[in-house]
Amino acid sequence: MAEFSLDKMEKSDKMRDELKGKIIRLKELVQYQGGTVASRMIISRKNGSVTIFCFDESEGLSEHTAPFDALVTILDGECEVWIAGGTFQMNEGDSIIFPANIPHALSAITKFKMSLIMIKE
User: Which of 9, 48, 75, 115 has the fewest CB atoms found within 10 Å of its own CB?
Assistant: First the structure.
């Protein structure tokens, strides 16, 4: 079991390495999948990560907190975001910071893609 996980992790690292030193279009790194959320981590370090997500219409993330600030940028489509009781409608090109330890959630209005940059302390 541990060997399988190690192989999978090494494969993921190799896939991320293939992106280095090349021009990439973030919103093309993950494709929509009906009725679900898909993601691809493109940078993973102990100090932070960059992950691309795509959400089918009406999909989302339930309210939760994270121990670190996170920058979300909408790459395609439209969603609604809730942060500590405030509601924000976001479109392609919009960014917002999810503050550490503050409840937040999001829901797709249309299919949408986003990048999530998490900076750890």
Answer: 9
